[in-house]
Amino acid sequence: MHGTTAIRGSSAKVMLGVLGGQIVLGAILATGLLAVYGPVAGYSALLGSLICAIPNGFLALRLSMPRRDPGARALMRAAYVGEAGKLTLTVLMFTAVFVLVRPLAAPALFAGFIAAQLVTIVGLLMRNNEQQDTR
Description:
With 135 residues, the protein is mainly α. Helices cover 82% and strands 0% of the residues. The protein has one domain (10-130).
């Protein structure tokens, strides 16, 4: 990959860990809600976590794709496009779920989304701790 850069090493591990954690936590929450409140709550929570994880995957892909221009400006452009795409995907997915999925348990949907968002915060904290440990 001559002349290209991509996010590697610990950053890639953190991104994959966060995405995996979002999906796993969403599945665990969905299973718990399924057992306690039934199938509507279960699949609603799973959809909520996927509404978070899929756009985050898009952003991670944008940031980790090799670029011809290795400069900071190209990375910032990729981050802006990735974040705009993430926001657009999130809105489209919420809209699609609210329009197409019946019945739907909105509290469980938002619980899944929020739980998956919390995994992102934990991932950032882990990365920050890792960086401090290497200093």
